[in-house]
Amino acid sequence: MGCPCELRIYAGQKHQAQLAAKACMDEAARFEQKYSRYLDSSAATEINRSAGIKPVEIDAETYAILKYAGVCYEQSNGLFDISSGVLRHVWHAQRSELPSEDEILRHLNLVGWEKVELSDQNIFLPISGMELDFGGIVKEYAADAIAALARTMSIRHGLVNLGGDISIIGPQMNNRPWPIGIVHPTIADTAISVIHLANGALATSGGYERYVEIAGKRYSHLINPQTGWPVESLLSVSVVAEQAVVAGSVSSIALLQGEQLGLNWLSTIGLKYLAIDADLHCNGAVGRDSFSSGSPSAHE
Amino acid sequence: MKIKSKSSHLLALTSAALSMPAFSAAQPVETEVSVRTSLYKEENVPADNIIFGDDVRYDIDIHQFSLLTPVGEKWSLGFNAARESMSGASPWGTVADADGAATLIMSGATISESRKEFSLSTQRYFNKSSLGIEVSRSKENDYEADAIVLSTEWDSDNKLSTLTLGMSYSKDKITPTDAILFGRVLEKEKTSQSYSLGWTQILDKTSVLQSGIRVTKHSGYLTDPYKLRDARPDERLEWSVNFRYRKFIESTNAALHTNYRYYEDSYKVRSHTVETAWYQNIAGNFQLAPNLRYYSQRKASFYLPIDDYTLPLTTNQSSDYRLSTFGAFTVGLKAIYNQPTWAVSFSVENYKSRGKYSLTNAETEHPALLSFSLASIGFDFRF
Amino acid sequence: MIWLRLVGTSKGYFVKTNSPILVIGMLLLAGCQNIQPWERGILAKPEMQLEVSKLGGQLRQQVYFANEASTGGSGVAGAGCGCN
Known about the structure:
- The complex is a heterotrimer.
- Chain A is α+β, with helices and mostly antiparallel strands.
- Chain A is built from seven helices and 14 strands.
- Chain A has helices spanning 14-35, 43-49, 60-75, 101-108, 135-152, 244-256, 259-269; strands at residues 5-10, 56-57, 117-118, 122-124, 157-162, 165-170, 178-183, 191-197, 201-206, 211-214, 217-220, 236-241, 272-276, 282-283.
- Chain A is globular.
- The relative contact order of chain A is 0.15.
- By secondary structure, chain B is mainly beta.
- In chain B, the strands form two sheets. A 16-stranded antiparallel beta barrel of chain B has the order 1-3-4-7-8-9-10-11-12-13-14-15-16-17-18-19. A three-stranded mixed β-sheet of chain B has the order 2-6-5, with no helix packed on it.
- In chain B, a hairpin with a 3-residue loop joins strand 7 (110-125) and strand 8.
- The radius of gyration of chain B is 24 Å and the shape is globular.
- A two-stranded antiparallel sheet of chain C has the order 1-2.
- The termini of chain C are far apart.
């Protein structure tokens, strides 16, 4: 997953916890093997490799994930687009000068979910060079899937934390909710806010960790798939929802819209959220208690 | 961006998310075993109501066992067994007493009879649906029944609605005891087919409503061979509509249950049933659930309160109290203690039926209308 | 380089790692008496089920079938008895 991950399982019997933990780890590895962009053997790599060549057969799980990506595309009016990954080649970290319009246009030709041909049996990326980036959905979905798996093994207390995307298996052993700290965007090892969750999920999207600095200005790694330019937006958005995958999409879509529209989107979506803008102002209903050490952090 | 209604974006995303495999587990994930023992006792018939026979009515001990286990990732297997032992007397017929009111002729009390029932079921789970089949057999010294049930369930994409379809077929055979001695039929059969359609809808985070319709046809020997004078049509068509509503009240940490059923058949019996229960969570892992049931039925068209021996047996007739006009109240209380891997429950209820409790005007009250008490203790295990 | 860090809290130990491998944090609890069985979502609570006790429901259905003229509730029934 390329990030620090944590699984907490609490059970009355060691044997039960061990069995469940092993199953969860196997499931996490399975997602990694299947959707990692960096593994030659993954289904994701096979899809990207066949761009412009031929359709690739997909299974029910991959189809469901891609269908979900399509719904995110529709609900965000095209801003959330998993085919926009190629734009990272333009805005890579070693870049020292701004790209030309031509370079951007060339890459924009390879972007566009509407170009992707998806059926319940296979997927075809029609232009060579097109790429799908599953990372924006699979990490959160994996957290949900692993939590669901733990529950099928009778685990009723615990949580799954994949690099800040948290899916809760159940509350703490004493039935109290988990205190979860949302990491401060600029001050290391500090939480800007703590939220208590007994069920559901929390996902955080941020533009502050990965960026490229050109001529003294920071450009975030979140690129608008329609203009090809990085978004100037909120610093960090955390959302609470029943499913981590929904929380993650809602927070990503908020970020992609820029500050004003993003705050608008969050205030009408019907979920609890914390949105931190560039001036470190906090918006949203997520609480502001002080951080207590020992609780899982929502971002490492 | 166009601002749509407050939660329509959220609804679209959540519906799409829920159709992903991680959220679709309907298969039982643990093995569940349940056992239950119950005591059923009918009140004696008031002495004034009897002209002949025993006044002691049924006393039944019931033992039930159930096992349900997942098999692999897509199947489940179920096994149920039940055993009953009963003793007591039952009404044979009615005659007019000196004032013309109906009085009972009761049978002699049987010492003890027993019934055993077994059923085997299996279910296959798909992404959004499941298919199930169940076969069962019931056997007692004068009655044998075999049945097969097919059922299927379909979830909607957003997982808020479920459609259920069921079909069953059964064949029963009755060989009345002491047939020659009492001039009863030696052996008769009947078959039944039933079809049901149900719709379960999650209304919101705290409530769910199920509605259903069921149609049944019985054919064959439907008469009660133990009655002194009883002749029924050889076909009975029944249909019923029912609703079940469950609502969780967060402020009091309790759940409200309400059921309603309307029933009608070709005998012209019509009934309404209303049940309600309040499951109150109490400190620790206890639950207390008081419950109430009200039932009202209108008599069958061929019901007569007093057996008429002048009517030919080709004319439908019956003085069975179960086909008369009456109403009934059940008051009960259930106590449950829950632990993660096991639970124990204890329940008691009392039933009273009277002609005057009916919504329809009961011209007379059948002398055999009864009251009973039922007490059960049950254990559930999950592993 | 993979690092592992053992963190102790009042609830037990868990291990943090930077490798994409998940690590178990588990606690052997002495006596689970005060733990509430917890299911995800209100609708999954045992008291919210359409049929709270399957065996209880079957028993009641049979008792009423033996004493009243109506049958049915939801779904179709299995093998009958000679009680009606």
